[in-house]
Amino acid sequence: MKKKVMLGLLSIASVAMTFTSCKKEETQVPLEPGTTIVKGRLTANLDASSFEVQTVPAGTGITFIIDGKDLDVKPNPNYQYDQISERVEVGANGEYTVTLPARKKPINAKAVFDAFEFDATIITTDDEGFQTTTVSRRVFSRVEANIQIVEGQTIVRDFAYSMEGEDFVNRATIRGFIDATFTDNFGDVTGISKTGTKTNISGTVNDTLLTTGSGYVTANNVAVTGGTGSGMTVNFTAEQIGIVKAVSLLNAGTGYWNGTYGTTTTGDGTGLQLNVTTDAGNVTAVTVPSWAQGTGYAAGQIVTIVGGNNDATVQITEVTEGKVLSVTLNNAGENYTVGDVVTISGGTNATFAITEVSPYKEAVPENVVVSFITSNGNGETYRTTTDAEGKYIIQVPVTQSNGMETISIRPATFEYETTYLEDGEFVTEPRIYSVTPISQTVYVDDIKERNITYLRNNN
Questions:
Q1: How far apart are CA 106 and CA 108, in angstroms?
Q2: Strand 293-295 vs strand 244-251: parallel, antiparallel, or unpaired?
Q3: Which of the listed residues 140, 268, 297, 386 has the most CB atoms within 10 Å of its CB?
């Protein structure tokens, strides 16, 4: 007698039937299996020159196979069980989801993958070890995989396809960006000029405001304008506006004694007091005490000295204007150049200079040669060159018995026009750039990202 197990509610119900003989009356009531969800994504290296992961074409399928015997709570060794199969196809994003019958006890589901053809971008190697890309019709396949499933679980399994007929059957891909610093006076702001004593932010001698401006009120996170960059903000302190610094006597008045008097004004301003010197009740001299200079006054205002016969008057000749006293960096911004002059918003014409930046790393020139030397018996060398964006990509064979290879990466030395600081001045002239050889371990089917930064030789 043969026992069959099929998917679906009716077929699943028949899975768990267990017989002790071939007689119909000995049939037991089956136990219905539960389910598990398996999902994931299928990827393939369809474009060896791309830095992005590619997914297999839509419609590529996986067939999941389960032994019906594994779904029977009490399997009978005297019966031949059918295998249950369920096929699912990936969508445009390379993802799949399938629901499979399962038991609380772990069982095995075998995944069998469709092969497919594709016009792939592949890497070829010439006799000198240089690699280039070309488009070729290739077959992609994937070996079977076993997945342990348990009732009630959601299992995520991604699978990668391999290309058949490659020059390197066991190979690894190394790719990345190569950069260097070519312009030391361009980048994010790290140093600015400031007011006050010679307290440098950047270590340079330019540590004073170019202009202190007027009309400012102490504030934080204030934008600046001007310069080659954008996004920089500062914190600054400013003197209080309208503090009286000097006055001149207009009317000597009568009935006054030497001393300190309060004042009144028909305009803005409060708190000003004046020290007066008198002769026969007339005011002959007036000074402003440091502890009672008042606030909110304007140059040109007339104030009356309260006392005597309240008839002595003075005119305010100098007040504080809201000058910026000190500046500190709040946000570095980007793309500024040393020497840029910027203006603080919120007042009039307070300016300072950029004294130091954090230089940017830029892509190295196109066609810089990078060599990759394998550690196998022949020490084979493979070469590639950078593209216009400083990217490189290489494929190397992995021939070690343990599926691992150690690669020596040796970027070639090159010369490039560079702006750098020398004796306090920025100089622009060619300089040599180089990289110490780099060791990189790779395994079969690796796609290893390895970015490289060149160092400048200023000697």
A1: 7
A2: unpaired
A3: 297
